[in-house]
Prior knowledge:
By secondary structure, the chain is an alpha+beta fold. The chain has two domains: 1-39; 40-115, K homology (KH) domain (GMP Synthetase, Chain A, domain 3, 2-Layer Sandwich), CATH 3.30.300.20. It has helices spanning 41-64, 94-104, 108-113, 131-138; strands at residues 6-10, 16-20, 23-27, 68-78, 81-90. The strands form two sheets. Strands 1-2-3 form a three-stranded antiparallel beta sheet, with no helix packed on it. Strands 4-5 form a two-stranded antiparallel ribbon. This is OsmC family protein.
Amino acid sequence: MPTRDVLVTERAGMARSVAVGPHRIAADEPVPVGGDAGPNPFEFVLAGLGTCTSMTLRLYADRHGWPLRDVRVRLRFDGPAVVREIVLEGDLDDEQRRRLMSMAERCPVHRMLSSAMPITTVAAGSGGQSAEAADTAQG
């Protein structure tokens, strides 16, 4: 899964700047906690799942030469679960629709979110240098 580093920096209040390579995205909390300058963290998770789902279905349909005209994915939290609604437009037969919906379960972000993926947290020195690199440089 090739990805670039993501850097999150503070702005005013709860607002954050999210940098992914050359891309800059605003993040925030809705009013009254924040200023609603961008999606909140949970909305970013939904956006990641939705874009990955859409891209996975597009790649699969194109690889098979299927007439998928458009894919729309709407997501929301419903209690502790995510509800993902997928609209497939195009002259697809029932088997193609069934296979595309099955592929949605196999999109990489869906698989990551539904697994118990470990997250390692490390303290970094000032200036973004990792603690291990700072120890090596001093030592």
